[in-house]
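Suppose you are handed only these lines of text.
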Amino acid sequence: MNYYPYSLWLKRHYGEKVYKLPVNLPVTCPNRDGTLGFGGCIFCGEQGGGHETLSSKTSIREQIDTNKRYIGKRYNAKKFIPYFQSHTNTYLPLADFIKAVDESLVGPDIVGLSIATRPDTITDEQLRYLEEVQTQRHKDITIELGLQTANDDTLKILNRGHQCADFCLSARRVKEAGLRLCTHVILDLPWDNREDVLKTAQVLNKVQSDFAKCHSLYIVKESRLHEMYANQEVPLLDESEFIHRCILFLTHLNPDTAIQRLVGRVPEEFSVVANWHKSWWKVRDNLEAQMMRQGNFQGQYYTKYEENEDGRKNADYNKQ
Ligand code: SF4
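From them, the structure of the protein bound to iron/sulfur cluster can be written out as follows.
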């Protein structure tokens, strides 16, 4: 394989296959309710990013047990990582957050926890608690932060309500707490150019993101993006440009960053347009075939970090 898949990282780390169990917390998003912004990101639908989750009214234990039974039987899985997936999973009072974390980490077959959130919505108290949990209970904690792109102008169009610098700051806090970092990016945003995709890879390198989760842009029903698309305001890119940008991203990314996902996935009933009307895995296969044909591989143009005089690590991007 010409890139480093997360499945391989899991196997190396735990000695066997490990599966994520989606958990839906009863949370919303500060970019929707007016705390940080209104209306949410233009690509986000009512589901808040999770389309395969059970109801948030179901208890955490029940969600975990139900998904564990299903995934365990289907894949003969024995180790699991609960995944707080939809909306902003640190947007809740500290006591509720602690309760949710504790409820999720019960049992020796639970090896860690993944928490998806916004870069501007994670408190020092939450990070301290997670650091303590990781150290004392030997469960690996990953924070998944949405960056989407390094281009601040595009972030504004997306109505993200934060800038790239906010992401970098938050990423540093996550790493300083000793937690793992996964960064979400969308590689075919029509307001970005190829240079922006390259810069996005460089930002992940700079913050030393452990994992990357890449998406192709899809349009969720009844999102603001859906409205813009209907008004012909979204010049969607074609599959070959997506693949080109994906290869650009991967070849400049640190080869040690494990790839959790390469292509967006959304059930048909929730979307208007997704993956050029193909299955996500066909797009992934096309991408892998093109990398193979061209002799591309992850980290091909990656330049190692060098210590500067402050002892802080900086990438020398000019050496490519
Ligand atoms: S921050 Fe996340 S949950 Fe909130 S609107 Fe954006 S994508 Fe949706």
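What can we learn from it? Residues 29, 31-32, 40-41, 44, 48-49, 87-88, 118, 146 surround iron/sulfur cluster (CB under 6 Å). DSSP finds ten helices and eleven strands in the chain.
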